[in-house]
Design goal:
By secondary structure, this protein is an alpha+beta fold. Helices cover 48% and strands 9% of the residues.
Length: 479
Amino acid sequence: MSDTFFGDLLASIADRGRSLLRRGRGMQRPESDGDLAELSEALLSGRGEASGVALASAILAGYEALGPEARLAFLHRLVDKFGYDHERLVLAMDAYRADPSSKAVLDLHSAAEPRRQELIRRLNLAPGGTAALVRMREEVLRALRADRELEGVDSDFTHLFSSWFNPGFLVLRPIDWSTPANILEKIIRYEAVHEIGTWEDLRDRLEPPDRRCFAFFHPQLVDEPLIFVEVALTTTVPGTIGELLAEDRVPIPASEASTAVFYSISNCQDGLRGISFGNFLIKQVVEKLKRDLPRLSTFVTLSPAPSFARWLAEERKSEDGSGLSASEHAALAVLDNEDWLRTDFPAEAVREALLTAAAQYFLEAKSASGRPLDPVARFHLGNGARLERLNWPGDVSERGLREAHGLMVNYLYKLDDIEANHEAFATRNEVVASSQVRRHLRKTGNGRTPGRRNAQRRVSANMIPGEANGAEQEETAQE
């Protein structure tokens, strides 16, 4: 009711503003990026609330009515015409040098802000402004692939969205079979890890007593999930996605479950890429599940490894040592056959070679910044999870084979260790992993894994805690 009230209030203000503008100087529908720029200048210079809301509405509606080339031209006007006020910035810098007072600091901070940041703030006043601005950033991100001049515009969107979509403003809502159909349709559309092919597939993921789904929503995007997580309640830690999604599986009562498995985390809004709230989603879901089901003691993921196949292909091309033995190279030659999983091959040799390579990939292969190459690993390790188990074969779908040769990974969220694990990763880039994962690394006589990139591969054994109680315990973007 509150969201509807404020939406109606803004719409009413916008209507009054349009009436005022028509009586005053007229306001025609913007037909070009130049018209939009002119209206944007008027929005920045104006002070009236009603006229400001009307101008913001006209600008956003005009932008969406333009063709792709004209919209891109307007985005470039944000760079050229709505950047820094250089004269004001120089004066503020000189004033600070002369007298570094608190007022001078505030003036300098204000002068250092691009004009387009205030423009974006005022555009957000329009009814539906937040959703329109998220769509606008989608176009900025698409254009950035070939046009780096828009980096400043994207930086401003990121800065503002980080505040507007602060987790304190987000609402966690359960998604089940009784959720309105317009939201369920979006869950099908936005699923980014394991495709939902039909409504019946969706029902199988939502209706059984041992299934849960939760999503974050923002008050200004009432029916648009921002990110959602699918959860399976089980009695063991799974190693394959097939056992969780099998059509003939027998559901268990939720009260019998001891393990919560996060098997799919999907971001829904491309325009919010890079705005972090996935970690808060997992932590809130864990807290809710523990309240509702006190018997749950293990919280794990069953995650993809989307960059593993690409990395392994490069390693296999290496002639100066990749950390794989000659026999492992020979076993992995079967991967060159597109239908290798459907042919006769030495399954155990391939399995051991893939797990050895996977251990190197997760524990030793690093980016230039010292972080793991795998984006899902960075997400979960950054949230304080532990790299718990490597599973092969875990996902034999077309996508799972293409991206990771069927490999899947369990990350364990052990509640007592989350903060320490997060600090180890955030401050020292240390990958906290179970001894079971580390055992897959093939050791030489000096205790090191051979390979040409050892200088870049760092993992500290003394930072890795002992294994969790129990036998073998285990994210959009999109994880």
